[in-house]
Design brief:
It is built from eleven helices and seven strands. The protein is of the alpha/beta class and about 260 residues long. The protein has a single domain, classed as Rossmann fold, CATH 3.40.50.150.
């Protein structure tokens, strides 16, 4: 099972948070109950609180390290956090807003899971989600090309799925439910500082399953090769290294 490092994840916190801010900005209404699926270290609870000061907020994440960080760092007395797998988790009561930032690409059979969760959305309520859609980018293409070759491939078999989902998929899904849907895609140009910043970025998220699958010694060899390939694909400029990153968004509202 992949484990997650809150400190590494938060290395680019502002850039990683931008899509969530853009997603929440498109949510209408005044929800009083909010569930944040894949809440991570809880750093985005403040975004929800700023938008909806009176709402109760419940974060759910499958990483013990992330939940521990959320519990330790957040003093919001109307926010709670739960360690659970979203693939099987369900809301005990109807929810006004279910929001999710960069989670569902990790959930097997995500459309069925979203469909089950949609049943727990209150009339007039909303599901708002965002997922990466950049698996054809050099960062991911090189990751999988290199890690699938000897001597790495014997350890990474089964970890090379394209996890991207386009806006049309969510538009079709929620439209079949009879919900009003706003779905779109955006490419961000993140300007990253430092040496090997693209590796630092992806090693906190998309590359973690592969990095953790490789044994010690082989992992370090892979990292050196992968870093060199990334430097060629994303050359540093005088202002930093530009990482284009495409994401898919959907905001779907149930009839009242």
């Amino acid at each position: 099972m992949t484990t997650w490092d809150p400190t590494r994840y938060l290395q680019f916190a502002d850039d990683r948070s931008r899509p969530f801010v853009d997603l929440v900005a498109r949510v209408q209404g005044e929800p009083t109950t909010i569930v944040d699926l894949g809440c991570g270290p809880g750093h985005l609870t403040a975004v929800l609180r700023a938008r909806w000061p009176e709402a109760s907020i419940h974060g759910v994440d499958s990483s013990p390290d992330m939940i521990d960080k959320a519990l330790a760092d957040n003093a919001d007395d109307r926010a709670t956090y739960e360690l659970a797998d979203v693939a099987t988790w369900t809301a005990p009561e109807p929810v006004d807003l279910i929001v999710s930032n960069a989670l569902f690409q990790w959930v097997p059979d995500q459309l069925a899971v979203i469909g089950r969760l949609a049943e727990r959305v209150a009339p007039g309520g909303t599901i708002a989600l965002q997922v990466p859609c950049n698996y054809d980018a050099p960062s991911h293409r090189l990751l999988h090309e290199i890690s699938s070759q000897p001597p790495y491939g014997a350890h990474t078999e089964g970890l090379h799925a394209d996890r991207g989902t386009h806006a049309e998929t969510y538009l079709d899904l929620f439209s079949e439910f009879g919900w009003a849907v706003d779905a779109w895609e955006t490419t961000y140009l993140h300007v990253l500082p430092g040496e090997d910043p693209v590796f630092d970025w992806i090693s906190g998220t998309g590359a973690r399953p592969i990095l953790q699958a490789l044994p010690e010694g082989l992992r370090e060899e892979f990292v050196d090769t992968y870093k060199a390939a990334l430097r060629g694909a994303y050359p540093a400029g005088p202002w930093g290294t530009v990482l284009p990153f495409s994401r898919t968004f959907a905001v779907a509202r149930r009839e009242a």
